[in-house]
Amino acid sequence: MTNLDPPPEKPEPPKTILAIDVGGTGLKVLATGQAEPRRRASGPAMTPQEMVGQVREMAADWGYEAVSIGYPGQVGDHGPRSEPGNLGPGWVGFNFAAAFDRPVRIVNDAVMQALGSYDGGRMLFLGLGTGLGSALIAENVLVPLELGRLLRGKRLLGDTLGRAGLERLGKKKWRAVIAEVVPALMSATLADYVVLGGGNAKRVKNPPGGARLSNNLTAFRGGFRLWHVEDVRTLSGDDNDQPPAPPGPAEWRLI
Q: Average pLDDT for residues 117-122, to the nearest whole number?
C-alpha cells in the first residue's frame, strides 16, 4: 500500500446480534428485532459449555450474525481472565466464537449494562446483583471498575450491596446503605449521574439524588451497541487469532 492508496474500508458491523446477559442466578438473551428476552436459571454449576448449549437452544429460531456476552467477571482481549465466583469452572480460555460459530465480543456485564444505559456526559453505573458490578463512562470512554473491592467497615462493598448484604441487612437497612454510599461514589468519580441496574435495583424504593434506575433491557441495548465500539476485540474462533491492530480514531473507547 502506498500513500496514494485509499485507506482500507472499515468492516460493516453485523446487522443482527444476539446479546447474552450472564448472571450469577439468571441467564437472559435477546436478538435484534425481537421484543421479549428469554430467560433461564444459571448458578454455581453452570459451565461455559452448558451456557452455550442453553443459549443456542433458547435462540434456535432467531437469526443472528454475531454475539455479545456480558460476563460476570474480569475480561481481557481474549475473553474472561478470571473465573466467576458464582458459576461453574472453565470460563477462562474457553473458545466462545467456535462454540457459537459466530464472531463474539465479550465484556464485563456491568460494562455492557452501562453502555446500554448511557445518555451522555460522565456516568457511573452500579449493578446491584449477586455482587456489585461497576463501570464509568466519561465522554464515550468506557472504564470497567471494581468498586465492590472497596472496604466499608470490615466488609467489602460488594458483600454489602450485593445479594448477601441485602439478605443479611434486610431491605430497610440495605436501602439506607444505598442512600449513603451512592452519593459518595458519585462524588469520588466526579460523575454527572449514577445509574442503578442489576436484578436488585428494583428493590431500591427511592434512588438517591442524582441517581436513576435502569430498566431490564439496558444490558441488551448495550450488547447491540457493543458492535459499534471499534476497539473492542472480536473473537473469531480461529486458534491463530492475532492481536488486533491499534485502532484509529473512534467514537468510543474501552480501556
A: 95
Q: What is the predicted pLDDT for the residue at 216? A: 72
Q: At residue 167, does pLDDT exceed 80?
A: yes
| Residue-range domains of the chain with CATH | 17-111+218-254 (3.30.420.40), 120-213 (3.30.420.40)
Q: Looking at the predicted structure, is the pLDDT value of residue 134 above 60? A: yes
Rounded CA-CA distance 54/226 in Å is 22
Instruction: Read off the C-alpha cell for 223.
Output: 450488547
What CA–CA distance (Å, rounded) separates 112 from 117? 9
What DSSP letter does each residue of 13-48 carry, written as one string?
Answer: PPSSEEEEEE-SSEEEEEETT-SS-EEEE--TT--H
Question: pTM here?
Answer: 0.86
Residue-level length of the chain: 255
Return the pLDDT at 9. Answer: 64
**Grid coordinates of 134:** 461497576
Please state, in angstroms and rounded to a whole number, the distance separating the CA atoms of residues 83 and 243.
22
Q: Around Cβ 85, how many Cβ atoms within 10 Å?
A: 12
Is a pLDDT exceeding 70 seen at residue 3? Answer: no
SS3 percent helix, strand, coil of the chain, rounded to 5, is 30, 25, 45
Q: 44 phi and psi, to 5 degrees?
A: -65, -10
* Cα→Cα distances 254→2, 36, 75, 190, 231, Å: 31, 28, 12, 19, 7
